[in-house]
Amino acid sequence: MTVAERGGVATARNRRKGSPSDKRLDSRQGRQQGSSTTTGPLNWLVVPALVIFLVFAVLPLAGVLLLSFTNWDGIGSITFAGVANWLRAFGDPTMYHALWLTFLIMALTWIIQTPISLLLGTFTAGTQKYRALLAVLYFLPLLLSSAAIAIAYKALLDPNFGLAAGLHMPFLAQDWLGQPQLALGVVIFVVSWQFIPFHTLIYQGGVRQIPKSLYEAASIDGAGRVQQFFFITVPQLKYTIITSSTLMVVGAVTYFDMIFVITGGGPGNATRNLALDMYLTGFKANQMGQASVTAVILVVLGLSIALWLQRLGGKDKNGSQLEGM
Amino acid sequence: MKPNPTTRRSFLTLAGLAPLAVWGLAACGTSGPGGSTGGAGSASMWSLTGAPGETIRKTSIDGFNKANPDNQVKLTFFQNDAFKTKIKTAIGAGEAPTMIYGWGGGGLKAYAQAEQVLDLTDWLAENPKVKDRLFPSAFGAATVDDKIYAMPNETVAPIIFFYNKELFDKAGAQPPKTWDELLALAKTFNDLGIAPISLAGQSRWTSMMWLEFMFDRLGGPEVFNDVFAAKENAWSAPAAIEALTKVQELVAANGFIKGFSSITADSNADQALLYTGKAAMMLHGAWTYGSMKNDGDGFVQDGKLGWFDFPAFEGGKGDLTNTVGNPGQYMSISAKASAEDQATAKKYFAEGMLDDAEVTAWIASGAVPIVTGIEDQLAATDDKDFLTYVYNTAKNAANFQQSWDQALSPTAAEALLNNIDQLFTKSITAEQFAKNMNATLGQ
Prior knowledge:
The structure holds two protein chains of two kinds.
Chain A: H1 2-17, H2 27-36, H3 40-43, H4 46-67, E1 70-71, E2 79-80, H5 84-90, H6 93-125, H7 129-138, H8 146-156, H9 163-167, H10 180-209, H11 212-220, H12 225-236, H13 238-253, H14 257-262, H15 274-284, H16 288-312
Antiparallel strand pairs in A: 1-2
Helix pairs in contact in A: 1-2, 4-16, 5-16, 6-7, 6-10, 6-13, 10-13, 13-16, 15-16
Chain B: H1 18-28, E1 42-48, H2 53-67, E2 72-78, H3 80-92, E3 99-102, H4 105-113, H5 121-126, H6 128-132, E4 143-144, E5 147-148, E6 151-153, E7 155-164, H7 165-171, H8 179-191, E8 195-198, H9 205-219, H10 222-228, H11 238-252, H12 269-275, E9 279-285, H13 288-295, E10 305-308, E11 323-326, E12 329-333, H14 339-352, H15 356-364, E13 368-369, H16 375-379, H17 384-396, E14 400-402, H18 404-407, H19 410-424, H20 430-438
Parallel strand pairs in B: 1-2, 8-9, 11-14
Antiparallel strand pairs in B: 3-12, 4-5, 6-12, 7-9, 7-10, 7-11, 7-13
């Protein structure tokens, strides 16, 4: 099993480097060999991807950076504004509040989603029939679009005609979207509800990759289920956790659509995070220059967090966790 | 605000990568029918999807195209929110359609200042027949610096104070004539366990309608005109502070239904509160009449829906015939279009728009087109009481204040809605509101 797996990895690497015929099983050798034989014509294959990346990612990014130094209402002429937009952004309490909210939502959604997805993923990784059935039910939110989820929750949370009236449970008739704390809670709940299935899926795949022999060895040594979970499952899932967390955290920086539909940033500014602030400033208030400042901050924030999380994985993150197996 | 109950729905057409959204949309969203493509004497028009406007506009254009083989209008429909983003981008990129649909006010002012739309003042002066058949009040929001930049069209939708007659009978109450009577009614209904006033506070523009009326009743149109003219500290005028304070008193007296900040107008939940007998009164656009008739299970048909003029304030300066809302919808001509295309557009304005067939179609849909002299046609409908009330309100209004969020620039409107939200939840005081809004004057 393990030999075949490594062979697979090596083959994939060799293909990427352009020597598909080489089917050597040792991955290290494959790596060395690949780096020394890059042939000419194949370099051209990278051009379409590079062009798309430049035109749709790098150029717009440069454009946003330029726009952040201008005043533009989206219709009239663009005028140079110097650093005025940046000064205003850094002197604006709404901006700091939006930044704080972004981190708060990031932290809270991570804290809620990770343990639940990890447990659900481990649970649904089992091969029993009832688990497969439950897994299908858990994954249902994945099939819905953010806007649909937001509209549905908005209707459910209506104090007069929503869940409270439908289920005859008066305690559900709170001012859900009218109280700052409650509204933030609603946002975090709905985000978690929407994305836990996705991360469960990632963890399910991760758990299924853990060799059975590890568990067999552990149970021979007398480890119980809880110990197996903490000493085998969780450590073996290290990279899965990093991947899932990166998606959660970077995703949290850009949560926008669902919040926009469900609260519109309200009440007041209670749920106006950075991404939403950017949209409202740019497309509702027509201040493209000011919105570009927010956009640049978002990009820098998202990239630094993603980079930091990748570092967490260690330099040797492409190495196998199954060395010696 | 538009005379269509579904238009505020916030379906997103963009999700994508948020950091790139600002530039990406501005740079890439320019495809679509160009302004001056096609043969001589053809014009393009973008209009909104949704009943009944979509069908009425299509029928009108088809009729015009058939009658004028040399002047063809090409019509494209967009969903409301998508349209708002797209038209802005198209105009910015110089690729606007010949005829630009809009809501007048601040949005039109931005187009006019960027010299993107044609000045129609002289053309209308030369064609008095085109102008004089429409409500004079409809031209206010089409005028920037004394020049008319848009042709009013479609329907008028003032804001109406609705009430549930059945609940008023139960409470032995009469429609309030003064603000004090309204405050007294709040207590009466609360004592009966009925919410006095339904309000979809989450949508914010719903709360704004209260302030629009209160500013006018207390201080007359001048108060908001000063804001519109960006006079210094216009939001802290005595009448403005009084209105802001009084609305918070109504909130404190539980005048609005409990949890109103969680109620949204998108789902028409505020209307449902009125027709299911959970709330006694509601201040809302005239367009809600149609949806309450549809959804209310006979509420309107059985005569349980009543309406009255917004109450007066003791010592208030505003004329009691003054009203607020949407004086009409607007159609401008792109300054970038060719002369032939512009001529076609003018021809459509003069002959096609709001012709007899279109007027009849709007009335049949339960709305009041902005045309004078249609009393008899309105009186022949099932909804004659309501339509005649709307017609007379619009026709007799000494001042027809356009909705503030349409009248102000988008920047100021966004700040306004945000501050109204905080005012109604009592997160800020009247003075703080005035201070925050004074900072946006002239933006």
